[in-house]
Design a protein that fits this description.
Blueprint (H helix, E strand, L loop, with lengths): L8 E4 L2 E7 L12 E6 L7 E6 L11 E5 L10 E10 L4 E5 L3 E3 L4 E9 L7 E4 L9 E10 L2 E14 L9 E4 L11 H11 E10 L11 E7 L7 E2 L16 E9 L4 E8 L8 E10 L4 E11 L9 E4 L7 E2 L3 E3 L1 E6 L11 E7 L2 E2 L3 E2 L16 E4 L2 E3 L5 E8 L8 E11 L5 E12 L9 E4 L3 E5 L5 E3 L7 E10 L11 E7 L2 E2 L3 E2 L14 E9 L4 E8 L8 E9 L5 E10 L9 E4 L6 H13 L3 E4 L2 E4 L14 E10 L11 E7 L3 E2 L3 E3 L13 E9 L6 E6 L8 E10 L4 E11 L9 E4 L3 E4 L4 E9 L11 E7 L2 E2 L3 E3 L12 E8 L5 E8 L6 E10 L5 E5 L3 E2 L4 E5 L12 E9 L11 E7 L2 E2 L3 E2 L14 E8 L5 E8 L8 E10 L2 E11 L9 E5 L17 E8 L10 E8 L7 E3 ...
Parallel strand pairs: 83-93
Antiparallel strand pairs: 1-2, 2-5, 3-4, 6-9, 6-11, 7-8, 10-13, 11-12, 14-17, 14-19, 15-16, 15-18, 18-21, 19-20, 20-22, 23-29, 24-28, 24-31, 25-26, 25-27, 25-30, 30-33, 31-32, 32-34, 34-35, 36-40, 36-42, 37-38, 37-39, 37-41, 41-44, 42-43, 45-46, 47-51, 47-53, 48-49, 48-50, 48-52, 52-55, 53-54, ...
Length: 1317
């Protein structure tokens, strides 16, 4: 019979060893069996090796044979004898050790084996098969003598259990050797080096979620790294499921410790097919390698079983590169803990350390975590050693925290000292000794369970054994006095346990319990409790974390403030004024507080620095942390802007993904962003089927987006993702790019790609926004702070912004006396006049002290100050502060008179609201509630309402509406009169506000009929000349600080040279356009243009490294009466005169002649604001709403729409018709809205109130037609608007179908003198 067998070969030079296993069928291989192996990697060609067995794989009880590589004559290539000694300590084992060799207690067992010459030994692997009733074994070390190293004994220390119920539960160990000549007596000096040679591989096995997926069989793995392999390892001792492993939909974690073999490149996994439920469905295996800083995913999604799938019990898995995770590497430290030799010194609690280094801190490292015999540590007088792998914190250890969790019967602990050892870059052992000699016990000394220690001595021992003392910059111990003031409110005191963690620029104190105060009964109403905390000095304090554990009956606690003072009387006050409670306030029992007088920017800077580590240095006799100092500004970093990414996932159940996704933005070949993660900061899931989600990412301005790359790390079959569309909106440039994707990103669908590049299918221009910077200072008054988000609306000479959300950043930005900074983008509003504030969720009031808004383009600042409270469920208008510090503009009384018509049944019982629109802004929504009449808005009645508002100037229009509530809601309004500031404005209406009558609108925009006569401005006759628009390219470094000059050639003559002055270097930035005008006589029909670069006045061109710019095109038109314009395309570099190998000017031919475009962005930006005397006009908008053709797509909810234009917005308009069944499946509902003309539409917001049984609604699209201009806008949707479907929101922001993206023209050769398109 001919058998095909699987084998593994280790190629060592020209020798080869094969191990043949036949545990089930030892009679398969006869004495004549011959294996022939070819070494295909031999550099000299293919080599043939003969391996003859001629032994039964049962003879003498052996089922493992080692075959020696021979030549054609049967002579072994090379063999050697070695003597193996194994010393066992403590217990007797009856397990099989290596080749059925038995060992006894406290004896040295010597074995002689004959093997192929292995060269210099690098490791020994020792294991047993866990058979027998008493298989646990503690191995001291292994010695190997003989072979090629005659007379040399190599020692392989172990000193670990090989047992499933001891230590880490492993029955196999890989042992690295001591250095040649070293013995076990040298182990103490070499233990760290040996530990550094080992790596712990965290193996997580995911069993699939299929019927019968779990297994009772034994599972084995073999890891193959870059340098070596682990050999066969049974996954026996699980860290996550100690009873039932490999159950359906389970995640089982195992630690495999072996000599470092590098990054795992592949793995083999198999089962032995034993047990009644032996079939197994494996989803994937994750391998985390902390010391390498890599986590890899090995997908499987296959059955293991003789009767399932393909019938195999063994598979080889390979990693999915897309799922690789790289992070900061861990390093191996040796922590030696000395427990004192005093009565009751030992502890059963869980002991931890926290190491602070110059590159970071370790966090809590639990000593002995995961070990089955951890209860044997920390006994009286014991010395316990641990070698944890912790994140890289550097090799300069600044301080150490040691403590325990206070759990267990004997939790009190007296620690003598702690020694921490690591290897530096030269592999010298650096040893830090920390003396403790104190109790960590609730009932002893200060009652603390943890303590901070400074190194008493620091020594370094080189590989050669030379030992030196190391001098380091040291901190000092400090005593902090903590005073906690409980508020004077009913029920303010607490009986719960309270804890504090203090954070400074030199580290943190760790969490400490506030246990011993001067009062027996701590934390009572209107009481101040004082505590002392001893720790290493913390530097400048920047935050504290205060919490209570909600224990005992009276757990609620109201804290007024916390004051911390050091021994030098430096004081930091942390204002709170909040409840710690699960039933009061915002229901939080843990809060982060910041010191009074420190801005949020300073806090974030300090926190960022300490996360980098504690790198100490002395400055003027004081120790400071280098990482918290301001970084030198060698060159200004490019300002980052916001990109809003909206991703639509396919609607089918299998089209969503749980994978991590990212986007890369591209602009040509020069500008490419890094991978920008797409995730929500809350708990909501991303990329659910049918969802349309928006993400905000930040990156520098890359100009026009020419492509995006979307990718994710979902390598399993059920992690595929179908993307319908992607939209990228750039607020600062006013561009929105649409990418019609319609494809899978999946391993088992389509082209099996997980990373795909897309180009835009449409681009929409909706008007650019200007970046601004907002600084908010909350007042220093009791209860002034709020944890709510703030809604901000900004008013200026040219209009108002949309409402902007200022995030409270989880309640930290708007606390009492805090100053916070944040960026916003708003339209160019001209000079700002006032702001309107509102609380997002109305939980509590807020008092603003000052808000500063800075225009980052013009560098102009606008200051707003107030002493008025912003109350919940209301708005607050704040005027700009006068430049001469005079009193701010006060409020003015306004009287609104509403006259109801004299028609049958024309009064209303509905709730009526109004907004006044003036030159300086609007009034906000005013509810017309209190009139002199008890019954308001009755037939032929007049109702008067009084309001106190900031001055609005000339009121040009009003918007009035009702909520269509009550049985008699139809209302016929005659007119509205507004009186204020000594003026009276009349707004005739004479129309129904009704969902049943007339045009069925419940909202009306009314225009003032008696605007005051205003002086007509003298109209100057426009000067004749040429308007030139310069467009700079989107290439990297395309902009310039210098001037550009242009000369025009016509059929009649050539113009003078026009200098396009770069005012203060503000113009000619990358991807910008600017407009210039020059008085000039007519040159006739223009044929060519010469254009070049000239040094700007006051700038030395020899000292300016930027001597060029890249020009895209110029556009020239004759003003004032020309109806066309000439386009000159360049797409070349312009250089200053004298630049080597560069031309100082270009001669361009006319590329094309086109109609004059008044809407060019440069012309819009440079146009003067519209005259305020221009009266608004009313326009009718036809709104067609198409419901999708899907099951249950219609809705019974109330629907509202807001139209946004370039000059204004429509406000929230109800889409109602009482006598029609609206928004039914596959039906179009039409509405006519009479509104103030809002200009070109940019977007719409459509929403429902979610009311009614059939509130779910699937909207197909909306078409809005301006009936005055005939412009029609289509807003596609095809999405659910529902709390349970799609993106689970009751609104959608819809954008009109955009234009096709511009194509990129090819550039002509650089040395052409005449450039044409």
């Amino acid at each position: 019979l001919l058998y095909t067998i699987k084998f593994e070969a280790w190629i060592a030079g020209r020798a080869c060893v094969v191990l043949m296993y036949s545990p089930l069928h030892p009679d398969v291989f006869t004495p004549t069996t011959l294996l022939t192996i070819y070494n295909l990697r031999d550099k000299d060609g293919v080599s043939k090796y003969y391996l003859t067995c001629n032994r039964w794989l049962e003879d003498g009880g052996e089922i493992v044979r080692e075959l020696v590589a021979c030549d054609e004559k049967g002579e072994p290539i090379h063999t050697a004898e070695r003597e193996v000694r194994s010393q066992t300590e403590g217990l007797t084992t009856v397990a099989l050790i290596l080749l059925l060799l038995f060992s006894a207690s406290n004896v040295v067992d010597v074995f002689t084996v004959s093997v192929v010459d292995l060269g210099e030994l690098t490791k020994v692997k020792i294991r047993h098969d866990d058979s027998g009733s008493n298989s646990a074994w503690h191995c001291s070390h292994v010695e190997v003598e003989g072979g090629g190293e005659e007379g040399v004994v190599r020692v392989f220390p172990c000193q670990r259990w090989l047992a499933t119920d001891e230590d880490d539960g492993q029955i196999s160990r890989e042992l690295p050797p001591l250095a040649p000549g070293q013995t076990m007596a040298d182990l103490a000096d070499s233990s760290l080096q040996l530990a550094a040679q080992r790596t712990t591989y965290h193996v997580t096995v995911y069993t699939g979620d299929l019927f019968g997926a779990g297994t009772d069989a034994d599972v084995f793995v073999q890891l193959f790294g870059e340098e070596d392999d682990s050999g066969s390892i049974q996954l026996k001792s699980c860290k996550s499921n100690s009873i039932n492993k490999f159950e359906r939909d389970a995640k089982d974690m195992f630690y495999i410790e072996c000599v470092d073999m590098g990054t795992v490149e592949r793995l083999k996994v198999w089962t032995d097919g034993s047990g009644s439920g032996s079939d197994w469905y494996l989803e994937k295996i994750n391998i985390d390698m902390p010391t390498l800083g890599v986590k890899r995913t090995f997908p499987c999604e296959e059955w293991f079983g003789k009767d399932t799938g393909d019938g195999t019990l063994e598979r080889t898995l390979y990693p999915a590169p897309e799922a690789d995770e790289n992070y900061k590497r861990s390093t191996t430290w040796e922590i030696i803990v000395h427990t004192s030799d005093v009565r009751h010194a030992g502890t059963d609690a869980s002991v931890f350390v926290n190491l602070y280094g110059d590159k970071g801190r370790s966090g809590k490292v639990v000593l002995g975590e995961g070990l089955k015999d951890r209860d044997q540590f920390f006994e009286r007088g014991s010395v316990d050693s641990f070698t944890p792998e912790i994140p890289d914190i550097g090799t300069e250890l600044v301080k150490l925290q040691v403590g325990h969790d206070g759990k267990g019967r004997g939790d009190g602990w007296h620690c003598a000292k702690v020694i921490a050892r690591c290897l530096d870059e030269e592999e010298s052992a650096v040893e830090y000794t920390f003396l403790c000699d104190r109790w960590l016990d609730k009932e002893e000394e200060d009652g603390q369970l943890q303590v901070e220690l400074l190194p008493e001595t620091v020594t370094k021992k080189s590989k050669e054994g030379e030992e030196t003392n190391v001098e380091t910059t040291k901190l000092k111990n400090e005593t902090y006095t903590v005073r906690v003031e409980t508020g004077d409110k009913f029920g303010a005191g607490t009986d719960a346990n309270c804890y504090i963690s203090i954070h400074g620029t030199l580290g943190d104190s760790g969490e400490r319990q506030l246990s011993k105060s001067e009062h027996m009964d701590k934390f009572q109403r209107n009481q101040v409790d004082t505590f002392t905390i001893d720790c290493v000095e913390l530097g400048e304090l920047y935050k504290i974390i205060l919490r209570e554990d909600d224990s005992n009956a009276g757990a609620d606690w109201y804290v007024s403030n916390v004051t911390i003072t050091d021994s030098q009387e430096n004081e930091a006050v942390f204002l709170c004024e909040q409840w710690f409670s699960k039933s009061k306030g915002d229901k939080k029992i843990k809060r982060t507080l910041y010191p009074k007088g420190m801005s949020m920017a300073e806090v974030e800077s300090a926190e960022k620095g300490t996360k980098k580590g504690i790198a100490l240095k002395e400055v003027d006799g004081e120790v400071v942390n280098e990482n918290t100092e301001d970084e030198p500004q060698s060159e200004a970093k490019p300002t980052e802007i916001k990109y809003l990414v909206t991703i639509e996932t396919g609607p089918e159940d299998d089209m969503g993904t749980d994978a991590d996704a990212y986007i890369i933005l591209k602009s040509g070949e020069d500008e490419v962003s890094e991978e920008l993660s797409l995730y929500h900061t809350g708990d909501e899931d991303e990329f659910t089927p049918g969802s349309k989600e928006e993400f905000e990412v930040e990156w520098r301005d890359i100009g026009d987006i020419t492509a995006i790359v979307i990718g994710h790390n979902g390598v399993l079959a059920d992690e595929g993702w179908f993307i319908r569309t992607v939209n990228v909106t750039v607020p600062t440039t006013g561009a929105r790019y649409t990418f019609d994707c319609q494809r899978w990103l999946a391993r088992d669908r389509g082209d099996r790609k997980l990373v795909v590049e897309f180009t835009p299918t449409a681009v929409q221009d909706f008007g650019s926004l200007v970046p601004h910077h907002v600084t908010v200072t909350t007042a220093d008054v009791e209860d002034a702070g709020t944890e709510c988000d703030i809604l901000l609306k900004v008013f200026g000479e040219n209009g108002a912004s949309e409402q902007i959300t200022l995030s409270s950043k989880k309640g930290s930005r708007f606390t009492r006396a805090m100053t916070a900074d944040m960026p916003i983008e708003i339209p160019d509003l001209g000079d700002l006049t006032r702001i309107r504030l509102e609380l997002a969720d109305g939980k509590n009031n807020w008092l603003l002290a000052k808000m500063v808004i800075k225009n980052l383009d013009s560098e102009k600042e606008y200051v707003f100050e107030t002493t008025d409270w912003l109350e919940k469920n209301s708005t607050l208008d704040v005027p700009i502060k006068a430049e001469d510090d005079s009193a701010p503009t006060g409020k003015t009384p306004y009287t609104i008179t509403v006259q109801t018509s004299d028609l049958f049944a024309c009064g209303t019982d509905a709730n009526v609201s109004i907004i006044l629109h003036g030159d300086t802004g609007d009034s906000g929504t005013l509810e017309l509630k209190e009139s002199e009449n008890i019954n308001k808005f009755e037939r032929n009645s007049t109702d008067t309402f009084q309001f106190s508002l900031l001055p609005l100037g000339t009121i040009r229009r009003v918007r009035i509406w009702h909520d269509d509530s009550a049985m008699s809601s139809s209302w016929h309004l005659a007119k509205v009169t507004v009186a204020g500031e000594g003026q009276e404005f009349v707004f005739p209406c004479n129309k129904w506000l009704s969902s049943r009558k007339d045009d069925r609108n419940v909202s009306r925009d009314l225009i003032c009929e008696n605007l005051p006569e205003e002086e007509e401005e003298e109209v100057k006759e426009e000067e004749e000349g040429y308007e030139i628009i310069v467009v700079i390219s989107n290439k990297k470094d395309a902009g310039t600080n210098h001037d550009i000059w242009v000369s025009l050639e016509g059929k009649d003559r050539t113009s003078d040279r026009f200098t396009l002055a770069n005012n203060s270097g503000r113009f000619f930035d990358k991807n910008t356009s600017e407009v210039f005008f020059f008085p000039s006589g007519d040159v006739g029909e223009i044929t060519h243009a010469r254009i070049g670069l000239a040094p700007r006045e006051g700038v030395d061109p020899d000292k300016d490294p930027i001597r060029q710019c890249h020009l895209h095109q110029i556009i020239v038109s004759r003003r004032p009466d020309s109806q066309s314009e000439c386009v000159f395309t360049c797409n070349h570099w312009l250089s200053l005169p004298g630049t080597p190998k560069r031309k100082s000017y270009r001669k361009l031919a006319v590329t094309t002649t086109q109609p004059f475009n008044p809407d060019h962005p440069a012309r819009i930006r440079s146009a003067p604001p519209p005259a305020k005397s221009k009266a608004p006009t009313l326009t009718k908008y036809l709104v067609d709403v198409k419901t999708a053709d899907k099951f249950a797509a219609g809705t019974d909810a109330n629907v509202f729409i807001t139209l946004f234009g370039k000059t204004a917005d429509s406000g929230k308009q109800a889409l109602v018709k009482s006598d029609e069944n609206l928004f039914e499946r596959n039906e179009t509902s039409s509405f006519e809205l009479e509104l103030t003309d809002i200009g070109t539409l940019t977007k719409i917001k459509i929403e429902t109130d979610g009311a009614g049984l059939g509130a779910s609604w699937c909207l197909d699209h909306v078409i809005v037609t301006n009936q005055g201009s005939g412009e029609k806008y289509t807003f596609p949707c095809d999405e659910w608007i529902d709390k349970k479907k799609g993106n689970k929101e009751l609104f959608r922001i819809l954008w009109p179908e955009g234009r096709k993206p511009d194509t990129v023209e090819e550039e002509v050769e650089e040395d052409d003198d005449l450039v044409t398109s």
